[in-house]
Design brief:
Blueprint (H helix, E strand, L loop, with lengths): L19 E7 L2 E6 H25 L8 H20 L3 H20 L12 H22 L2 H9 L10 H36 L8 H32 L4
Antiparallel strand pairs: 1-2
Helix pairs in contact: 1-3, 2-3, 3-7, 4-6, 4-7, 6-7
Protein name: ATP synthase subunit a
Keywords: ATP synthesis, Cell membrane, CF(0), Hydrogen ion transport, Ion transport, Membrane, Transmembrane, Transmembrane helix, Transport
InterPro entries: ATP_syn_F0_a_bact/chloroplast, ATP_synth_F0_asu, ATP_synth_F0_asu_AS, F0_ATP_A_sf
Amino acid sequence: MNQAILLSSSNQNIDFMVHGLTKFKLFGQTIYITTTHVCVFIVMMVLLIFSIVAHVKLKKAEDVPKGFQNVVEFIVELLNMMVNGSMGRWAPKFVNYISTLFIFILFSNISGLLGLRPPTADYGTTFALGIMTFILIHFNQFKHQSGKQIWTDMCSPLPPWLPIWFPINLISEIAVPISLSLRLFANILSGTVMMALVYGLLTAVAKIWPAALHVYFDLFSGAIQTYVFCMLTMTYIAQACESEE
């Protein structure tokens, strides 16, 4: 794995950078397939296989769940409670999106436990997630709020006929996908850098004890950042759906 797809290796050339694995021409432009694309594909395949198995198992669901069925139902109930607690009456409309987002980000974050370079340690991944949330926020804002209410909110806290705060509020709206994506990216990348340094510089002694660091950087920090990203997403969307009517 000389291109750093895997981080947990004894290879002395290990690093935390994104590398191009292959390239091809498309409409005159050079397109690179990077380590991030490979890791995202692996994460997607794992989640797809899990989804297919869960679908097949739940077709033959038992009244008293056990084993794999119990795990799937626990995950679904946990995600439903999280979304219902944050979005209230809007939860049924967005529970599928938020649940998919949560599972994808969480598994991407903890994929370092499997030796992968977390896809969320690439800003291209987290920025795309931020843009998706940004589009969903403003789609629902224009759907549920009148133009007058949107203009009043953009001029807040002053009256709408005195739009002094409009430029500042506009910048804060534009900054939403950037702040969401940078927070997730920076926290996951920092853990990736730390683990790469441990394995790259302390190869001779990095045998068992780095597992404790993986628990923090990959599992604990990854779960926290997943929760923060999804909570902010739910908060922004719920606010966009509220109207004065």
